[in-house]
## 1
Amino acid sequence: MIIVLKKDITQETIDHVVEKIKTAGLAVHISKGKERTIIGAIGDESLLASKALEALPGVESVMPIMKPYKLVSREFQKESSVIDVGGVKIGDTDLQVIAGPCSVESRDSLVECARQVKAAGARILRGGAFKPRTSPYDFQGLGTDGLKLLAEAKKETGLPIISELMDPRDTELMCEYVDIIQIGARNMQNFRLLMEVGKAGKPVLLKRGLSATLKEFLMSAEYIASQGNSQIILCERGIRTFETATRNTLDLSAVPVLKEETHLPIFIDPSHSAGRWNLVAPLAKAAIAVGADGLMIEVHTDPENALCDGAQSLKPTKFARLMDEMKKVATAVGRNL
Ligand code: PEP
Ligand code: MN
C-alpha cells in the first residue's frame, strides 16, 4: 500500500502515520521527496483495512496495491477455471449456450422450447420460477411448480437446468431441482444470499448488477468463493447508462477486462442487455468475438404471448439461425460451438 502525505507536515505527524502502520504488523519504507513524503507499507494490506489511514492527519491519499478480491483473481489461480455441469464443460475451448424462456409458463411450452433449443445446439436450459419483477402486479413465476416443470423438461431432453434463486430460504429447494443456481442482477450485492449459495456448493451463475462496477462484481463473486464454492460463472447482462435506445447498455469490454482479472468463466446475456429481439443476434456474435465463454439467450415458442420479456425473446427458428451464425464467429476466434 502506498500512502501519500500532504505537503508541509511535521515530523510528528509522519511518525504518527508510521506508528499506525507498524502496529498493524507491516514494515514501512519512507521516501522523502522535495515536496512531500510517500510511505510504502509492506506486508499484508488487509491488516490495515480497519485503520482508516485516509482519515489520519497529514494523509492525502491511500493506494492499495493488492487486489481486494483474492480467491477469484488470476493472481491466485493462473489457469482458467472449467466448471462441469452434468458433463457440460463451461470455460473450456467449447462455448456453451444457455437458452430458454424468461419464465416457466406451462409444461408444453417449456418442453417444446427445450426440445427446440437443444436441437439448435444449446446445452443448458434456462427458465425462471421465481421472477424478480419490477412491479408486484406482474407475473411472479410459478414458484415450486415451475421448478418441477424444469425437472420434467430436463428428464425429456437431458439438458441440465438453471433457474434464479431470490430468497436464501429457497436455497435447499432450489438445490433439489437445478444444476446451476442463478443470482440475478438485482441481487448481485445481496451478501447473505451470496454466502448461502457459497455454502450450497452448486455451480452459480452470477449476473452483474445494474450499476455495479467490475470490481464490485468480482467482490460479489469473492463472497461466494469465500464460503468454499468457486464454481462461479460471471454473466454480463448490460448496465444502466444514459442511453435509452436499449434496455441496458451491453458492456462488451467487461469480457476482456474480467479475463485479465479473474480465472472464472464469463458469459454474456444479450437478451436482457438489448431488451429487443432484433438486437440479440449482433450482440451475441460480438460477445463471442470479444472472448466470452458462453451466452445466455431468451427463447420463447410464442414471444408475442410470453408472460415475461417477450420483446427480447427469440423464436426457436431465429435462435437456430443465430446458432449457425455464431459457429462461424466462434471458429474465427479459435473456439468451438
Ligand atoms: C433473468 O435472467 O431472468 C433475469 C431476470 O435477468 P437479470 O437478473 O439479468 O435482470
Ligand atoms: Mn427475462
## 2
Amino acid sequence: MSILSLNNIRKNYGPIQALKGVSFDVPKGTVFGILGPNGSGKTTMLGIIMDILRPTSGTYKLFDQVPDETHRRQIGTFLETPNFYHYLSATQNLKIAAAIKERGEEDIPRVLEMVNLTQRKDSRFSTYSLGMKQRLAIASSLLGNPEVLILDEPTNGLDPVGIAEIRTLIKKLHLEGKTIIMASHLLDEVEKVCTHVAILKKGDLVATGNVNEILANEDIVEVGAADISKLKMSLERLSGYNSIREQDHLLQLFYPIGATNLESINRHCFNDDIVLNHLQLKKKSLESKFFELTN
Ligand code: ATP
C-alpha cells in the first residue's frame, strides 16, 4: 500500500514555479526523506499534502484513496517551530494540544515516554533545551497514535546531542511500524535515518527510490602507488569495473555493487611490478550523488 502518491503536482506562486509536475509514491512503513536545497519546494509539498495549500494542478492520494479529513487525522504533523506556552509544563501543554486536535488526552503519558520526557513532564516549557522542545513537538504530533508522521526539518537548529536524540526517536517510531515523511536539506540526516528518498531541485524531482539503491549504485575502490601513470596503465588492463578516474593522486575504480575484489586488484598490480601504497573500498556517499544529481 502507498501512504502517499503524488501525480504530476504543480504549484505556482504567481510567476514562481515552486513545484513543476512532481510524481512519486511513499510506501507504507518507510522513513521517506524529501531532500533538496533551500527553495526546492519541500515545504510547499508538505503544505499541499496537509491541505494547507492547494496545488495549481495535479492530484494526490492518501492511503490509496482520494484524501479527506479522515485520512489526515491518521497523520501527525510537525511543520513549524514548536509553539507552546512557556509558563506551562509539558503535560499541561499536551493537554491543550490534545483538546485542540480533539485526540488522545489519555495518550499523554505514552507520548511523553516515547520522546523520553517523562521525567521532565512537570517542568515548565521555558526550562526546556531546544532539543527537548523539539521532542515535545513530536510528542504532540504523536497524540492519538497516528499511523503516519510528517516532519519538516525536525533537527533544525539542534546541537549534535539534540540531533542524535531526534534520529533515535525517528528510528524507534519506524520500528513501531510508523511511516515517516520528513523534509530535510541535510544529506547526512537523510543518509542516516531514511529508507527512501525523493530528491528535489528547483521544483523538479531528480531522483526517487530506496536510499541504498539511489546512493550506492556503485562501489568505489581507491588505489594508490608511487608511480600513478604506471599504475593507471596497469589498471586499464584489468576488467570488471565500469570506469576509472584520477583524484587527489589516487585512482578510483567504479565497480557495480558487490563486484569488487581487493585481493585480485592487489595481485594484478603486484604481477605488473607495482607495490600499492593505498587500497581501499569506499561507498559512494550521498553527498557526491546529491551533487551529481543537483548540479
Ligand atoms: P526551505 O528549506 O528554504 O524552506 P523549501 O525547499 O521548503 O525551502 P519552499 O519553501 O517550498 O522550498 O519554496 C519553494 C519556492 O517557492 C521558493 O522559490 C520560494 O521562494 C517560493 N515560495 C514559497 N512560498 C511562497 C509564497 N507564499 N509566495 C511566493 N513564493 C513562495
## 3
Amino acid sequence: MKIHEYQAKDIFREYQIRTPKERLCFDTKEAIIAFRKINKKVVVKAQVHTGGRGKAGGIKLASNEKELQMATNTILGMDIKGHIVEKVLISEAVDIQKEYYVGLTIDRSNHTILLMVSSEGGVEIEEVARVSPEKIQKYALPIGSSLAPFRAREVAFDFFKDIHLVRQFADIIEKMYKVFVEKDASLVEINPLVITGKEEMIALDAKMTIDDNAMYRHPELEQLRDDDENEKLELEAKQHGLSYIKLDGNIGCMVNGAGLAMATMDMIKLYGGTPANFLDIGGSSNPKKVKQAMHYLTQDPNVKAIMINIFGGITRCDDVAQGLLQAFDEIEITLPIVVRLSGTNAKDGLKILSASNKVKTVSSMSEAAKLAIATIA
Ligand code: GDP
Ligand code: MN
C-alpha cells in the first residue's frame, strides 16, 4: 500500500525525524489559511501516489498570496502520470545547501535491508541511477529491531567530515530504519534530505510503501489508505481472483500464470511493442473469470489490441474459449484480438473460437506478440 508524502511525514514526525512545517489543503481557501499560518515563503506540493512530481510541474514555490493562489489552482486537478491531484501540501520553503538521497528497501536475494545513499539527491536521482549508478552507495543492513548506532555512524562518515552533520545523518538513518521495521514498510525514502544554511538536516520529501501482506498487523495504517482509480481497480480484480496491474502501453494481455505473464510482456517488448498491463487469470480459470478479465482489458482506453496467451494445465483452454465467447456477447469489443492456446483441451478451445470471427488464432507466443503489434502499427 502506497501512502502520501504528508502521511509519511506524519510518521517521520512521530519518530522525531525533522520535516518542514506544513499543512494539507483541499482548495485555495485552505491553502491561503495555511500560508498565513506558516507566514513565510512556501512550496505547494501535489499529493499523488507517484514520484517525479517536481518534473511534472506538481511542485511550485510561492512567496505571496497571489503566487500561492496561482500555484494551487494550477496544481489542483493536474494529471500527473495518470494520477489526478485532489489535494496539496503547503510546506514551509527551506533554504537548500545540498540535497541527498536516502532510501531503505528489501533486498530479497540477500535477505537483508538495503540502504541506499547518494550525495546527488534531488529530482535527477533516476538519471543518476541510470547513468552513474556508482554514485549511489549501497549498504546491506542486518534485519533486526534497530540499527546499531556504530553502523549508522560508519555510513555517515562516508559522506560527512563535520561531526555535527555525521551525528544528524546517523540519527536519521537509525530512525528511518526503525520506521521501516516497525511499520513493515517495503520502501522508506527521503529525496531530498537537505542540509540547510544553518547546517540542519531536514526531510523535504518522503515516500513510503507498506507491505500489503503485513497490513493485518497495522490497523493504525489502514486509515491512511487512499487508493486512486488504478489502485482501486487492482484491488477489485484481486477480489475476482485476478492479478491485474495497469501499465502504460497499448497491448492488453491476458495470461495464465505469473511467470508466463512476465514472459509475455517480455515478448511484446522484444518485438517492439508495449504491454498495457500485467494480467494473470490464475489456474483453473472458469469462463466467468475470463469474462471479467476481458472487462478490465477493454475498459482501459489505451488498449489498442489484445493478446491472449494461455498454456493449459489445470486451466482448460476450452473454458477460456467459452469465457471469451461470453465476453463477446456481453461487451462490445472492436479491438483486434490475438489468441494462442496450448496444452489442456487446446483443440476444443480453438474449435469453440472458430465459431467467432472476432479473434485471430496463432500457435506460438512469439507469433501472437508479433501479430498483436502488427495490428496496431
Ligand atoms: P518529487 O519531484 O515528487 O520527488 O518532489 P520533491 O518533494 O522531492 O521536490 C522536488 C524538488 O523541488 C526538490 O528536489 C527541491 O529541489 C525542490 N523543492 C522542494 N521543496 C523545496 C523547498 O522548500 N525549497 C526549495 N528551494 N526547493 C524545494
Ligand atoms: Mn522527491
## 4
Amino acid sequence: MKLHEYQSKQLFAKYGVPIPNGRVAATAAEAKQIAEELGGRVVIKSQVLVGGRGKAGGIRLAKNPEEAEDLATAILGMEIKGLPVRKVLVDQAANIDNEIYLGITNDRAARKPVLMGSAAGGVEIEEVARETPEKIVRVHIDPLLGLRDYQARDIAAGIDLPRDHWRTFGQICKSLWQAYNASDATLAEINPLVITDENHIIAVDGKMLVDDNALFRHPDLAEMRDLDAEASSEIEARKYGLSYIKLDGNIGCMVNGAGLAMTTMDIIKLFGGEPANFLDIGGGAGAEKVAAALRIILSDPNVKAVLFNVFGGITRGDEVAHGVLAALEEEKPLIPMVTRLVGTRAEEGRKILADANMITAETLAEAAQKAVAAAKGEAVRCAS
Ligand code: GDP
Ligand code: MN
C-alpha cells in the first residue's frame, strides 16, 4: 500500500524526523487559510500516488495566501500521470541550499533492509542509479541489531555531508529506520532531505510503501488507504480476497495458486502471447469468488480471450465448472474462454464446460496455445 506524501511525513515526524509545518487541504479556500496561518512563503503540493510531481507542475511555490489560493485552484484541477489531484499539501516553504536522498528498502538479494544515501537528491533515485550509480551509498541493516550509529556516519561520510550535520543526520537515519521497521514498510524514502539556508535539515518530501500482508496488525495504517487513488479493479479484487495485478497484455488469466498463476503467464509468453493480468483465486474458491474474478478480468477492455487454469486438489473440478458457469451466466462475456482443468473430478468438470461451449484443453501447453490463438481472433476448437 502506498501512502501519500503528507501521510508519510506525519509518520516520519512521529519517529522524530523534522518536517515542515503544514496541513492538507481539499479546497483552494482551505489552502488559502492554511497559508495565512503559516505566514510567509508556502509550497502547494499535489497529493497523488506517483513520483515526479514537481516536473509535472504539481509542486508550486506561493509568495502569499492569494497566490496559494490561485495555485491550489490550478493544482486541484490537474491530473498527474492519469491521477486526479483531490488534495494538496500546504507546507511552509524551505529555502533550500542542498538536496539529499535518503531511503530504506528491502534488498532481497541480501535478505536485509538497506539504507541508501546520495548527495544527488531531488532527482528520482532510479535515474541516479542508472546514470551515476557511484553517487549512491548503501549500508545493510541487521534487522535484529537495528541501524547502528557508525552506519549512519558511513553514509554521511560517503555523501560528503559537512561534519556539523552528522549528529542530526544520524538521528534522522535512526528515526527513518524506526518508522520503516515499526510500520512493516517496504520503502521509506525522503527525497529530498534538504539543508536550508539557515542550516537546518528537514524532510521536504516523503514516500512510504507498507507491506499489504502486514496491514492486519496496523489498523491505523490500513485506515490511511486512499481508495480514490487506486485502480477500481484492484479494490474489487481485495474485497473478494483475490490476488490481482493488472498487466498490459490481452489474455486474461484466472488461476488457482500463485505458482500456477506465474507458470501460466510464462507459458502464455512462451507461445507468443501477453497476459493481461496475474490473478490467483486461491484454494477452494466458490462460485461467488470465481464470478468476481471473471468480472474483474472482463472489466479490462484490453482482454481479448480468457484462460482458466485450475488444478483441482481440495477444489473439485465439477464445482469449479459450476462456478465458471454461474459466472458466465452473470457476465455473459462475448470473448473466447479457454479452460484447462485437471485433478479431482476434472473429467466431470471438463464435460460441463464443453457442454457450455467453452474451449477446453487437456494440457497447459494446449490451453496456452489456444488462448494465444483465440486472442488473435483465430478460430479455436475444443479438445475432443
Ligand atoms: P516530487 O517531484 O513528486 O518528488 O516532489 P517533491 O516534494 O520532492 O518536490 C520536488 C522538488 O520541488 C524538490 O526536489 C524541490 O526542489 C522543490 N521543492 C519542494 N518543496 C520545496 C520547498 O519548500 N522550497 C523550495 N524552494 N523548493 C521545494
Ligand atoms: Mn521528491
